[in-house]
Amino acid sequence: MSGHDSKYFSTTKKGEIPELKDELNSQYKDKKKDAVKKVIAAMTVGKDVSSLFTDVVNCMQTENLELKKLVYLYLINYAKSQPDLAILAVNTFVKDSQDPNPLIRALAVRTMGCIRVDKITEYLCDPLQRCLKDDDPYVRKTASICVAKLYDINAELVEDRGFLDTLKDLISDNNPMVVANAVAALAEIQENSSKPIFEITSHTLSKLLTALNECTEWGQVFILDALSKYKAADAREAENIVERVTPRLQHANCAVVLSAVKMILQQMELITSTDVVRNLCKKMAPPLVTLLSAEPEIQYVALRNINLIVQRRPTILAHEIKVFFCKYNDPIYVKMEKLEIMIKLASDRNIDQVLLEFKEYATEVDVDFVRKAVRAIGRCAIKLERAAERCISVLLELIKIKVNYVVQEAIIVIKDIFRRYPNTYESIIATLCESLDTLDEPEAKASMIWIIGEYAERIDNADELLESFLESFPEEPALVQLQLLTATVKLFLKKPTEGPQQMIQVVLNNATVETDNPDLRDRAYIYWRLLSTDPEAAKDVVLAEKPVISDDSNQLDSSLLDELLANIATLSSVYHKPPEAFVTRVKAAAQRPDDDEYPDGADTGFSESSVNEGITSPSASSSSGSYAATRQAAPAPAPAPAPVPDLLGDLMGLDNALVPTDQPTSPRGPPLPVVLPAATGQGLQISAQVTRQDGQVFYSMSFENNTQAPLDGFMIQFNKNTFGLAAAGQLQVPQLQPGTTASVLLPMVLLQNLSPGPPTSLLQVAVKNNQQPVWYFNDKVSLLVLFSEDGRMERANFLETWKSLPDSNEVTKDLPGIVVNSVEATLDKLAASNMFFIAKRRHANQEVLYLSAKIPRGIPFLIELTAVIGIPGVKCAIKTPSPEMAPLFFEALEILLKG
Amino acid sequence: MAGAASALFLLDIKGRVLVWRDFRGDVSAGQAEKFFTKLIEKEGDPESQDPVVYDNGVTYMFIQHNNVFLMIATRQNCNAASIILFLHRVVDVFKHYFEELEEESLRDNFVVVYELLDEMMDFGYPQYTEAKILSEFIKTDAYRMEVNQRPPMAVTNAVSWRMEGIRYKKNEVFLDVVESVNILVNSNGQIIRSEVVGALKMRTYLSGMPECKLGLNDRVLLEAQGRSTKGKAIDLDDIKFHQCVRLTRFENDRTISFIPPDGSFDLMTYRLSTQVKPLIWVEAQIERHSRSRIEIMVKTRSQFKERSTATNVEIELPVPSDATNPNIRTSMGSATYAPEHDALLWKIKSFPGGKEYLMRAEFSLPSVIAEDALPDRKAPIRVKFEIPYFTVSGIQVRYLKIIEKSAYQALPWVRYITMAGEYELRLI
Questions:
Q1: How many domains would you assign to chain A?
Q2: pLDDT of residue A500
Q3: Which positions ≥6 away from B298 have C-beta within 8 Å?
Q4: Burial letters A196-211, b for 16+ CB under 10 A, else e
Q5: Between A and B, how many CB-CB pairs are < 8 A?
Q6: Chain B residues with beta carbon closer than 8 angstroms to that of A5
Q7: First CA to last CA distance, chain B
Q8: CB < 8 Å to B241, chain A
Q9: Which of A151, A847, B244, B251 is the most buried (most CB within 10 A)?
């Protein structure tokens, strides 16, 4: 079966459009049809044929299905550019939606749903209403999806016309494909709505599990994905669900298998019986392994997911490490992922075999893969104490092959091994020193220098070795310079003889007078002062014992892992990022399909490179964050009088460069708190506050220029913080003339920039401009700005959640200074901050209020407020899966209720 | 979780759009094209790229087939496994329609391509990918009729893979049991991975809506039925079934029951990870003489019973890319130098069990080599073979019952064959 459509692509150049116009209006059917095909061909190759709109639409009324489909296709593409003419098509659409042929009925409503023109949409409602109740399942399944289309264009219309109820009824349809599409549509609508629309009860659950047996493979995926959100009431229900889902593991479709795995893993969290859990783990292993026989692209998705699964349940694949051994013909992206999983599964039992594999890979030709294999050996050494020696001997063998990049990579990981097992393997230093001359990469050089400095007392010619590097000191990258500085100081402290003394003079001179790198200069000055005032103290500082490192690279923190596991098979699980980090909701209505450019604001600052980043060396720093500190040169050319010195290192450690500014934006709102007074900012005053507007978090800022000169080139950077707040775009401040003020709203993203450790409301900010040094200031983030608009809970859900959380998750606090004068006013105030009222009761003379709120990653806050009207003192109790956030909550609540 | 594709693109080898179908109006053709061009420019080789790429708010997932890229763009957190698999299914459907999917066949059939895309995906959700049924109501020019086509029942039925009313004069079923042996032997001669991947490939020519039941020598089933399983039963632990098989039924009582699609399909696949002795063993000794000459000695042995015979045995030995002047002798079969693969190909038509053959080859090497030459890519020895009437697992089809309303007699034909899958032995 082969066509000859390519002829339609070649039309005579001269007067193409008028010629087509003639043909479209031809009285001969065949000529007409050919003309429409030519139009579609032109459209396909990107020519603008919108001027033929009327002529094409005139061909719409035809008995010929093929022709009809082509005209419809044309309409989908051009209706938006000709909204007034599009109305011409409505009549035919409506007529077609009542055609005796179900194929045409479905085609009409499917196409109408794709035309994002308000005038058409209005006319869609009646046909859609009919088609949802059509006798033919093919029409119903098409109409189900169409409800989601309509919701995307005009949500209100869907709600007003009662489509949601009709759609919900279709969950009980007797046709499995209709059910599956209704589920997909409802799940999407729910995702975009803050109201509870599609809640899975135990009744729908059982209905959908039954439908699972009969629908197409794609339908099974829709249903499993929707059901994976269901929280079983108890272990027994969870076991029941799992039992009904397990047969899906045998499906030939990999997507069905992965979605089933997701659902089983979710329910397993509730299952208490260890036997059942063990049994399930055993059942899941073979299907997961079989995913590796699929097409390489699918393998890639599977491997990214397996990476997550083994972090949570390492036992599932503990005995299957061999299936992750790389095949010769695996694409490089598959090999890279396999390697990562091999490291995760490596154990004392299998390490010998694994090392043999790594060694094999280290002699392949793909440089990135080879490097990763060498790093893998190092990571295994750090992870498995008993195997460390074997790992090192493999590394030494590799060094002997003398392939330059292998040697350099090996030295980098050996430095890490030294940090993990201090004073154990120094005997190999001599071998390392043999390769000294071949090192040309900064990280390898820096690592080697660190080793020499650290073990200076055991290397007879340490001074000579370091000296050889000193000659080129000014030309070295900052990373190497910093290490040379520290290593020379170490050498001097360990061997305070004449040679090192001279060296230290040279180095300190180079690192203070000759450099314009503030990091290097600051560190050199500190050493200098230490050495000149109290050499003993210098010893204590520079030669202090370092904490032992562990291999935690590429391990995700538990709450993120939870979220990613709930997203198995989706892009989120491929990126290892929560969905909100990369999903950009662009309201399609605002876009023209033929637009070439999209606003850059859609960029959330997500970078692909960080997704697949191989290893971030766990011990990248030898002393106080030196590597991190130099990963990029300092942005400030002038001497930096850092008011918060401890911040410096951290701020510089960020991988994002400072963002430049150029365009103005106008803000709104009440006066902002001053965060950088003019006195501190040499005349620049900054006021700022993190705020929430229309469901988005902004950093609302105001800049006041009290200096004598214009300021421009403003940039901003946020230190890692509890909420992972980071700038979503560029800070856009216009050139600021003396005596003027500029206000901006900087959109922020969450979860980008997370700092470990206990939660704190502290937000450390650095702002710079072209005229002044970098300004650092601290701000506080109110937890309230994180409360999302969809935090409202159903009463039953609230009670259930409250019960399901253990008592240890409840935190109580008295807020003595607060007076509640009116319940309504208080509730309004709380609602304005997205704390939603659930219920109220009276207890003696006390009012007890229940509210719910939600912070990112869907973590709920259940709130109970107890107060007597008019009397100071409010008792606040909250229950949440993240009780560590409670102090932040109380702090924010107190400010809110006071103000 | 909800998430759907924004648009599907078919691009030529340079990333230019051949055909695209916009499902959600939130990405543009130009954007994707530009992105793709950049991708190819940067890496040179798109095959080494991760198949999931993020750029400026949009995720692109793509696969390549011949000179065509199939790519889906999305702005949401959609099911990546499902989308990528869907792309592979699109390839299957196009191949069914146009025999081969390539740039030319897409251009020649763009009207049908649009029609198919419209039917296979709606608003970014995969809908229907059964090529055989699709071709019942979407036809290419040659077969197009002016009468109205209707959607076949099968599209929305529980049995979505089979049309009603199929008629054959002679009702027949062919069942091929094909086992592929995957093996990886490291340079120390240790077997580090060995598995058997089996497939039951069916070709059905049956009338009506036949109910089929397949009986295997499955140990679990036989034991449950209280039959003796002495030596004949096998353990099937990792099985995947075609969507026609009733999974719940299998889970309950291990019965494999189904209404088959018409024509050929894989009824089930299975995997055994039990270690098997390599059926064909190869040992190679390589001697380099003073940089100018390389001598390869290869010994191969068949390690299966004498009554079986391997056929079409092909042993591919890597040789240095700059080798010249081959001088080859074999004790059986023929060996040729294939410089385009940097390999020596040794073919043995028929290789009975328990035999051993030898080959000796000599090559000249250039005496001068570049100083900074990268190490050669170390390819493994690869082996291909087939052994008919033999399975490694010992799987047996005990019966295949076919029941249809009209009570016709159908003849099942069963064949067994074992072949090499990814059969790699690394060189020392």
A1: 4
A2: 86
A3: B282, B283, B284, B285, B315, B317, B346, B358, B359, B360, B361
A4: ebbebeeebbeebbeb
A5: 343
A6: 107-112, 141
A7: 49
A8: 250-252
A9: A151
Instruction: Answer whether A569 sits within 8 Å of B82, measured CB to CB.
Output: yes
The residue segments making up the domain with residue A112 are: 5-230
Using CB atoms, which residue from A286, A295, A588 is nearest to B24?
A: A588
Query: Is A218's CB within 8 Å of B125's CB?
Result: yes
Report pLDDT digits (tens) over B276-317. Answer: 889 999 999 988 877 788 899 999 999 999 999 999 999 999
Contact A250 B240 (CB under 8 A): yes
Q: Determine the CATH number of domain B280-369+376-388.
A: 2.60.40.1170
Q: Which residues of B touch A259 (CB under 8 A)?
A: 79, 81-82
Residue to mutate among A297, A400, A438, A611, with most B CBs inside 10 A, is: A297
Interface contact A584-B22, CB threshold 8 A: no
Question: What is the fold, at CATH topology level, of the domain defined by B7-155?
Answer: Beta-Lactamase (3.30.450)
- ipTM for the complex shown: 0.89
3-state secondary structure of A704: strand
Residues 733-752 of A with CB under 8 A from B: none
Instruction: State the pTM of this model.
Output: 0.75
Same fold: B7-155 with B172-179+190-274+392-411: no
Tell me if A599 is assigned to some domain: no
Token pair, residue A32, equals 């007409």
Residue A271 CB contacts under 8 Å (≥ 6 apart), including other chains: A235, A238, A239, A242, A277, A280
Q: Please say if the pLDDT value at position A594 is more than 50.
A: no
- Would you say B63 and A301 are in contact if contact means Cβ atoms under 8 Å apart? no
Task: Give the end of a domain, one of A781, A798, A815.
Answer: A781
Q: Look at A1 and B158 and tell me if their CB atoms are within 8 Å.
A: no
B384/A contact by beta carbon, under 8 A:
no
* pLDDT (0 to 100) of residue A632: 38
B148:A360 CB<8 A: no
User: Across the interface, which of B59, B193, B247 has its CB nearest the CB of A250?
Assistant: B247
pLDDT one-digit tens code per residue, B359-389? 999 998 876 665 555 556 678 999 999 999 9
CA B337 to chain CA centroid, nearest Å: 28
- Using the Cβ of A596 and the Cβ atoms of chain B, whether some distance falls under 8 Å is answered with yes
Q: Which CATH superfamily, name and number, covers B172-179+190-274+392-411?
A: Mu homology domain, subdomain B (2.60.40.1170)
Helices within A386-475 (DSSP H only):
388-401, 404-420, 429-434, 442-454, 462-470
pLDDT confidence of residue A253 = 95
CA A415/CA A405 separation, integer angstroms: 16
Q: What is the pLDDT of chain A when averaged over all its residues? A: 84
Residue with tokens 């240890």: A808
